[in-house]
Amino acid sequence: QVELVESGGGLVQAGGSLRLSCAASGLTFRDFAAGWFRQAPGKEREFVAAISWDARRTYVADSVQDRFAISRDNAKNTLYLQMHSLKAEDTAKYYCVNAEGSWGQGTQVTVSS
Questions:
Q1: How far apart (Å, rounded) are the C-alpha atoms in residues 96 and 106?
Q2: β partners of residue 93
Q3: HSE toward the beta carbon, residue 101, CA cutoff 13 A
Q4: Residue ranges of the chain with pLDDT lower than 50?
Q5: What is the chain's mean pLDDT, rounded?
Q6: pLDDT score at 28
């Protein structure tokens, strides 16, 4: 099974930007769709974005539409989430996942208002 490790989280002011990365081990990462979820304290985990195995199709939640973008580099076995115009309500732990059902441990994003 693929191991996923997220990075790039941190503390940022409202209006700022961050890029999250998710490094995958294993040769099958490039064969499957992948995505990002997030979970804020006291809330359920929610979908953020997804991308097809070949990056031809992307899906972004309405709540982050026009601010977040998902991409991948299969040559590097890496998934990305570019986040702009961050808001306090984007504060959460962000997880990457692939269609095989592998989850990373998450990376914390905190947006100060």
A1: 7
A2: 39, 108
A3: 1
A4: none
A5: 95
A6: 81
